[in-house]
Design goal:
11 helices
Length: about 260
């Protein structure tokens, strides 16, 4: 643990405790978990607010990146646009989670959109193009072809697996990829963040294996806990980048070309 900063150790401990508690709630009696995981319930709301907080922190990192004195090559010359893109991405995730405030403000979904939305709401991730294949038996398309299923959850998996796992590993073990990431000033997630995401996935799959058969009609509540954990881990990364380095550190901002005077 000596190689981790105090902030990293605190974040990892906090995330471990949060994930442990969330899955401890799953195991005793999954049939009663609808009280926690119903629409706009505490679990879903926690996930949505986590995405909003992550969006705010990533956007703050975008503005703070000006302090690094680096000349960026993409769009904003004095700020790292990757943080802005992350801020926008997770603001969209927040909006999608709450159907862009529809249930809060009570507006009606346009008829054409409602007819193609699984829940009849104003969001994209429940459109039939994202969910129609996910309702098919898992083994219908075979193990490898399942990775080609076009669903919102699968797209999010591809994103976090790439950003939290693949890119940090390439940065760590490939000089060629490391040089390319530095050239575009891509922030590299610490390996502990990817480990947390993988651990959440592994625990969710393990719990799912034990409860799916016993609670056939209720196992979907496990997905809500898992998704919220992903969102909280994203917040952990955002907090680390914002708090530990505040837009200045080498662990957050790869070495880059100084400004020309």
């Amino acid at each position: 643990m000596g190689k981790f900063s105090k902030t990293e150790r605190l974040l990892m401990m906090g995330l471990c405790v949060f994930i442990a508690i969330s899955y401890a709630l799953v195991l005793p009696d999954l049939r009663n978990h609808w009280r926690l995981t119903y629409e706009d319930g505490i679990v879903e709301t926690t996930g949505a607010l986590a995405f909003l907080l992550a969006s705010m922190l990533f956007t703050a990192c975008f503005f703070l990146s000006k302090k690094s004195g680096v000349h960026y090559r993409l769009i904003f010359r004095e700020r790292n646009v990757h943080f802005l893109l992350l801020g926008i991405l997770f603001f969209i995730a927040f909006g999608e989670e709450i159907s862009w405030g529809q249930r809060l403000f009570g507006w009606h979904t346009p008829e054409e959109l409602a007819s193609h939305n699984l829940q009849g709401e104003t969001n994209l991730h429940n459109l039939d193009i994202f969910v129609y294949r996910s309702e098919e038996p898992e083994n219908k398309y075979g193990f490898f072809s399942n990775f080609l299923v076009f669903s919102a959850g699968r797209l999010f998996f591809y994103f976090w697996f790439s950003f939290f796992v693949v890119i940090p590993l390439l940065h760590r073990f490939s000089a060629k990829w490391k040089g390319w990431f530095r050239a575009i000033h891509l922030p590299i997630a610490p390996l502990w963040a990817g480990t947390m995401m993988l651990a959440n996935l592994a625990i969710a799959k393990s719990v799912d294996f034990f409860v799916r058969q016993e609670y056939t009609d209720h196992y979907a509540t496990l997905d809500e806990f898992s998704e919220t954990n992903y969102a909280v881990i994203v917040v952990g990364l955002a907090v680390y980048w914002w708090w530990e380095k505040s837009g200045l550190g080498s662990k957050v901002f790869p070495a880059a070309t100084p400004k020309k005077i």
